[in-house]
Amino acid sequence: MDVRTIKSFDLAYRGIDERFRVADDCELYYELEGTGPCVTFVSTIYVVSTSWRNFTRNLVRNNRLLTYDLRNQGASSGAPTGFDQHTSDLLQLLDHLGIERTYLVGSSLSTVICRDFAVRHPDRVAGLVLVGPTFSPWGSRRRTRIMRSWLTALESGGPRQLFDVMYPLVFGDRAQGIGGGAAYLALRERFLAINSAAQLRANLTDALETTVDAEMLPRVTAPALLLAGDDDFCISPSGLRKLADMMPNAHAEVFDDCGHLPFFESTERFERSLCAFVEKVEAQRQAA
Question: Total domain count for the chain?
Answer without folding.
Answer: 1
